[in-house]
Design goal:
The chain is mainly β and 118 residues long. It has no helices and eleven strands. The radius of gyration is 13 Å and the shape is globular. The N and C termini lie far apart (37 Å).
């Protein structure tokens, strides 16, 4: 599975951005899609995930009620709608695909920078 993330940018605190992640290749092997982020000097942090078939979602406490993960399976694309952004949301955001067989995130997108100014 190949993943292409897009949609990052610079936004003021309180603003919104929508990230997209387009999947190609063996998309039938995807169990879940997830978004992760990594801020400068910090480790990678889980943000949200969505089950590819069925659409059940789960969020980290830090983004719950502000971010929404969704998908358009016909387009093999997953989205992350980010509202009420805070400076602490500044990070490189990565999408990842969890494999059906191993339930591991085996495919990763290239990352897209999100910068929130105060």
């Amino acid at each position: 599975v190949q993943l292409q993330a897009s949609g990052g940018g610079l936004v003021q605190a309180g603003g919104s951005l929508r990230l997209s992640c387009a999947a190609s290749g063996r998309t039938f092997s995807i169990y879940r899609m997830g978004w992760f982020r990594q801020a400068p000097g910090k480790g990678r942090e889980f943000v949200a995930r969505l089950t590819w078939s069925g659409g059940s979602t789960y969020y980290s406490d830090s983004v719950k009620d502000r971010f929404t993960i969704s998908s358009d399976n016909a387009k093999n694309t997953v989205y992350l709608q980010m509202n009420s952004l805070k400076p602490e949301d500044t990070a490189v955001y990565y999408c990842a695909a969890q494999d059906q067989a191993t339930r591991q995130y085996k495919s990763w997108g290239q990352g897209t920078q999100v910068t929130v100014s105060s």
